[in-house]
Each structure stands twice: as structure tokens, then as C-alpha cells.
């Protein structure tokens, strides 16, 4: 496994640098490397590494989400609070329902099967969006109106909606009775519980950070922070809380209560991210089965793009009463295109459950990663200087 990890790191790093030379997001090179080295092409990665792939990807996400939280300003968060809820709900519902109906017409899916596909595809990728928004924050693009903050918050909540509604259709398809009211009740429970959990973990950390009697080095404090965040994520997932949102809230509270230490944490996490991003995106790429994606064919592409149009309409509607210009609203539409994390995590569940439509659902989920992750990442990079104002 160590040899596979070393191979992934060195080849991934070189690929990231080559792609960056052409002014494209490095994650595209990492996705390609992961797909090539993974089990579906060259098969050079150790099976044991692939078995812990999910855990490694989640840890990398924890790192970037803490860092995102450490960059959230209270004034900006207050400014975009209501808009964040709208931009997480409306595009997700429009895309999910549209794909459900289109797959019913084009693939002869039942509405339950179409609902599973729709809300697998409806989740935007925090793995792609969050690092991109942090880059925008650091370069000052869109920060005057809190656009990176809006998209950071919206991405985490968007996934809660998508996964919760998917779970309803999945339970229905596998014969588990579940009322729509119980599913809807899970959404506020998950979001509010995730936020409260993140605040609690932050409050547990603050005495250590502020203490004048306990002399811990900054690196030791960061180790404790990452440990607490990881434990919270594990417990939160088992309780069906919005753990990723909670991890971001954890960073936000620390920034609000201990800004000097938060800046140090942010610099340290930026250094760790150099390593973590290779693990995250290369292992997401390793999940991609090109042959399965090809099986989705033209109909799969049509369904994905119709869903993206519905999502874009949803973003336009969600930002209708904001103070954003047309260019800024267009940027939000582009930033909400990429899919990767959720699709890689749950795209195979219907197939694993033995559902007849599972193979097609997985093929379209994989194809959505292949198409939208690079499209969204490149779109964000190229569009930001033209559509957003720089502070």
C-alpha cells in the first residue's frame, strides 16, 4: 500500500503541475491520474489503499472544510444567510425532480428509480467547490458581496437535501416503508444538529486554545483540532447530522472567538492541503470506471445536461432578489455545476442493493463526474476574473 501511495503522490503532483502550467485547475490532472492508475484502467493501486479510499477522502474533506470555516467572516455570513438556504434548496430540488421526470420518459424508469438517479445527480461537489471558493477568497474575487461565503455554505446544505431525499427513494425501492413527513423532518434535524455539533466541538477546543496554563505548541493544537473534528464527523455521520457543515461551523466559531490562533491554523492547514488534495482528487478519480461511464451513452449525457439546465435555472431563481449583478448570478450558476464527491460515494448503492436499474444509475453517476467536475472547475477558474469584481 505504501508503494501505491507514493506512486499516487508523485505522479499526482507532477500531473497537477503540468495541468496548472496551462492555467487549468490542478484537480483535473489528479482526477485523470486517479482514473488511469485505478482498478478500472492500469490497476496499479493496491487494493488495500482502495479499501480505505472513502476514509482518506473524508479526512481530506475535513481538512479543507475546517480551512473554509476559518475564512468565514461573521458579517458576510449574516449577509448571505437567507440566500445560502435558497441556493442550497431550489437548485437541488429542480435538478432532482427534472432528472426524475426525464429518466422516466427516456429510460422508462419508475418515478422511484428516477428519484434515486435525480437526487444522486442533484448533489453539488464540496470537494471541487470548496477549494475553488477558498482560492477566490484569498484572491479577493467576489468577497465584497460574500459570493464565496454564499457558495461555501450553500454547497454543504445542498448535499444534505440531496442525500436525504435520495434516501427516501432508495428506501422505497428496497421495500423499507418511510413517510415523506419523516424524510422532510430529517432535513432541519440534520442541518441544525450539524451546526450545534460544530459549535459544541469548537467550545471544547477554545479553552485549550486560550489557556495560559496549558502550554501547547500550535502544531499540537492543530493535531487536537483535527482529532476532534474527525471524531465529530464520525459521530455526526452515524447520527445522520450534516457533519460537513458542522466541521465548517467549527472553524467559523474558532475564527470568531480566537482570530489570532485561527490565522495560524489556516496557514498550517494550507500546507497540509498540498498533500491532502492529491489524496482527495486522485482517489475520487480512482472511483471512475470509464467503461461504465461510456455505457451511459448519449442518453446519459442528455439527462445530465437537462439536469444541469434545471439546476442553473434554480440558481438564477435563488439569487433573483439578491444584490448580485447578472454577471455574479451567472458565476454562481457555473460554480454550482461540478459533481464528484456524493456521486462517487452513493452512486453504486442501488446496484449493490440488487436493483434492476442500478447499473444504469451507476453509469450515469460516473459519467456526471467525468463531465461536470472538469467543466465546473475550469468554469470557476476562467469565469471568476470576468464575472466577479476583485477587492
Automatic annotation (TrEMBL):
Residue span(s) of domain Cation/H+ exchanger transmembrane: 9-380
UniProt cross-references to InterPro entries, sorted A to Z: Cation/H_exchanger_TM, CPA1_transporter, Na+/solute_symporter_sf
Residue ranges crossing the lipid bilayer per the database entry: 27-45, 57-75, 87-107, 114-134, 187-206, 218-235, 270-290, 296-318, 359-384
Compartments where located: Membrane
UniProt entry keywords in alphabetical sequence: Membrane, Transmembrane, Transmembrane helix
Principal subcellular localisation of the protein: membrane
This protein's record includes keyword Transmembrane helix: yes
Topological category with respect to the lipid bilayer: Multi-pass membrane protein
Coiled-coil ranges per UniProt: none
Name of the protein this chain belongs to: Cation:proton antiporter
Lineage per the UniProt record: Bacteria, Bacillati, Bacillota, Bacilli, Bacillales
